[in-house]
Specification:
122 residues; alpha+beta; four-stranded antiparallel beta sheet; 4 helices; 31% helix; 33% strand; elongated
């Protein structure tokens, strides 16, 4: 039997949301980019080729979008809520790495974005 790491990724999910500490950030909103990596413990689908044995990335996207629509002051809180919702929905998930980037943070000057990464294990 071979050892297999099985990871599902969503890369560059671009969503508009209203996260931030400043009142203007909450009112106007901004663009955010989410990169998500899910390590899956159940490998049944690798041999069966059946959707029932995996975590649907379409369902993962729906959860990310739902949580992004709930305003938060901190990106850390958004990442935590997304991770918690994914763990609650999918027992197959062993660990999650999520990076949430505010594409245009209000800090002046040139920047590529401000990001938070949270890594968690079940």
């Amino acid at each position: 039997m071979q050892t297999t790491d099985y990871i599902i990724q969503l890369k560059g999910v671009h969503l508009y949301a209203h996260h931030g500490v400043l009142e203007q950030e909450k009112a106007i909103g901004a663009w955010f980019t989410i990169d998500l990596e899910l390590q899956i413990a159940d490998h049944a689908c690798l041999e069966s080729d059946e959707i029932e044995g995996t975590v649907s990335y379409a369902d993962v996207y729906a959860i990310v979008r739902r949580e992004m629509n709930i305003p938060s002051k901190l990106l850390e809180n958004v990442c935590y809520r997304i991770s918690s919702a994914l763990y609650n929905e999918f027992i197959q998930i062993a660990s999650i790495n999520i990076t949430l980037t505010k594409d245009t943070p209000p800090m002046g000057g040139d920047r590529l974005g401000a990001a938070v990464t949270i890594k968690s294990k079940r």
